[in-house]
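To assess whether ligand presence alters the predicted conformation, the chain was also submitted together with beta-D-glucopyranose. Input:
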Amino acid sequence: MGSNQSSYCYHQSNKFQGTSEQLQAIEQIQSEFQITTDHMHAIVDQFIKEMQKGLDHHGATVAMIPSFVSGRPTGEEKGKYLALDLGGTNLRVCQVELLGQGKYHLHQQKYVVSDQLKTGDMRHLCDFIADCVDDFISEHGDPHEKVDMGYTFSFPIWQTSINSGELKQWTKGFACANAVGTDPAVLLQDAFHRKNLLVNIAAIVNDTVGTLMAHAYRHPETTMGVILGTGSNTCYYEDISRITKFEADNNKILSNEMVVNMEWGAFDCERRILPFTMYDNKLNRESVNINEQLFEKMISGMYLAEIARNCMLHWIDRLVLFGGQSSPELNMQWRFETAYMSTIHGDHSPNLTATKHVLEDIMDMPAGSTTLADRQLVQAICIAVGQRSARLAACGLAGIIKHKKMINDDDDDKKNDCLIAIDGSLFEFYPEYEANMMSALVDLFGEKIRHRVRFELSRDGSGLGASVIAMMASKMAKQ
Ligand code: BGC
């Protein structure tokens, strides 16, 4: 890709056979979602400024929250822990046995959190979680044995210690009453007491931090933990001396570095630099957290398909797509899912049959009503939205890489300065996501970056990672 050009397009194995209006629509979409290399550089510069503000003072847009996790796991940690994961698609309860030498056993059970619980009273949510933990322990554990738990709570909290904090705001469609401003660990611990469960919340953990620690248990040189899933966020090891707002209690700090949970989803809520389109603005206006998490809303799996749906409706209303016809399914907010975008993005069949299936069988467009050109236009939209997400995520990573001076220019032969652990459905399943992030990094840093940065999928953050942190926390508490 040339430095200022976009490669966003429908897959070009087919010649485009639509009308000139449709071709123009594709060109417009490509340019609306394009992020040039110059623009990416500007985003990275702004991102670094915001990181600095977050490290300097409380209340900054990019919150840069000290996680109280300092030091790196050695892989030799041992013991049995419970872990809980709230904030992804499901609630997960896990029992993890750390065996040392980077090895472990994990049992887990998933529970569905209903929309009613996600938006009801926090006490009900905590009681529900306690019921799930009770159910899990009756099945897999010993109800009479006291056990430490790592609680992965994947929302922005101002952490006040390894196992306490204050919820700043909800994200990702959660909106429970009586929770913001309170300590989620205390509320859950109370629910455990009400049920007489012998579970002690030893650590409260962001999923990015869990992902970093899970990977570091096996690869201690890991530098960042990233989530590219329903939501998006990153954490990394920061020198404590650079977290100027942090008042360290030196007796409790095991090392000179600490993991910082960035909460990067909030980046550019001031709208200084991100290339918002009218489709992003519509999504934002109709979301439950208006004007919050604007970076996350352009990147993460919860939102991408809604942006694409808004774009499709725009071209339907101009009679350019589907001859102006829509379907009740396509008209419904959130009904088009990012998993469908993945299918469409990855559809290389000559007639775009997988795309046809999504549009006609799932989104209920009348059978046989979509033309190949319609499907190519839809594919162009999905590719443009998906690629923009990967390029923006890469800008965030580039900001950290530059801020931490991770890439050593003098030593050309040095390999893999930066090992990045990533979890989440976008990274794992979305076609070409990793390649698109890497190609954006190449646009920013040049070809050498390919040997300096390595992305690795790390699936067990909220189970293994939270347990490793619970273990480190209980070790700290005993010291
Ligand atoms: C939350 C973060 C979390 C991320 C990924 C965001 O909405 O604010 O705390 O790490 O989602 O789950």
